[in-house]
Amino acid sequence: MKQEIKKFSKQFKISKPRSIDWKIKLLWFSPIIIIAFIVRFPDYRKDYLLEHYGKQSVAIIDYSCTTEILNAPEGDNVIFHFLVDNKIYKGFESVPANNNYVFTPFGMPLKPGHKFILTYYPENPEIYRIDLNKPLSNNMLDYLFKVAGALRQSGVCDGYGNDTQTRLCVGIYVFKLYGFDGWADIMFYDEYLLENFRNNGFSFRKLTHSDKFRAILNDCKNRQ
User: Fold this and answer.
1) According to the model, what pLDDT value does residue 34 have?
2) Position 15 pLDDT exceeds 80
3) Integer CA distances (angstroms), 125 to 18, 93, 140, in order
4) What contacts 24+ positions apart, CB below 8 Å, involve 204-207?
5) Residue 151 CB: number of other CB atoms within 10 A?
6) DSSP for residue 161
7) What is the dihedral sign for C-alpha 36, 128, 104, 72?
8) N or C end of the chain, less CB within 10 A?
9) Cα separations (Å) of 57 from 52, 71, 73, 79, 85?
């Protein structure tokens, strides 16, 4: 009799609707989704305004520091300014740094006076974005001469006519072949791996002992 009752109860057992599980999960995750949207909404709005209505200006680096600047928002370590309708606006940015240098996204040092493309919202220029991947021509010349100086200090051009013209030639060819990464290898030729994991003495030796670099040295020597 008990077995028959159990069979009867199983036949008429009310199953839990799957929709209830789905609703419970939705109630659980909804606050998380809402909070995430609220936190990210200023970024979404900024991206939209700059993408659809943004205009360009030039940002000039005023100050860069290996640690965060006192009273700067969000722990930023770079201060710059830009001009809109003859009015100067101040901006802040946070970029990677070690104990000695502040870095651009492409690995070169970021210094006062360097210029970059900046996009701003005309209705409110306080909404802006600096593009540190787009250095202007004065930055490139500054980098080139600093690379030439590092080549002189490292002695890698010794025996190939270690003069300014030869070093500038080497710097130009290195950039053509290796881009900013090649320049950074030369700039940080005496950095330890722990100081600069990407560009350091090891990457410098790897670059300068390559056949391509030797070919650059010979070509620049023959151009004199």
Assistant:
1) 46
2) no
3) 51, 15, 27
4) 204/154, 207/174, 207/178, 207/182
5) 26
6) -
7) negative
8) N
9) 16, 25, 22, 16, 10
Report pLDDT digits (tens) over 75-103. Answer: 799 999 999 999 999 999 999 999 899 99
Residue entry with tokens 């190939």: 160
Among 175, 208, 204, 173, residue whose Cα is nearest residue 187: 204
| Cβ 172 vs Cβ 144: under 8 Å | yes
pLDDT per residue as tens digits for the range 175-190: 999 999 999 999 999 9
| Residue 24: Cβ within 10 Å count | 10
DSSP string, 17-54: PHHHHHHHHHHHHHHHHHHHHHHHHHHHHHHHHHHHH-
Q: Report the predicted TM-score, pTM, of the whole model to 2 decimal places.
A: 0.76
Residues with Cβ within 8 Å of residue 207, at least 6 apart in sequence: 174, 178, 182, 185, 186, 213
pLDDT for res 223: 80
Between CA 114 and CA 61 the distance in angstroms is 5
DSSP-derived secondary structure letter, 181 = H
Which pair of tokens denotes residue 106? 């492409």
Q: Are 58 and 117 in contact (CB under 8 A)?
A: yes
Provide the pLDDT for residue 72.
Answer: 75
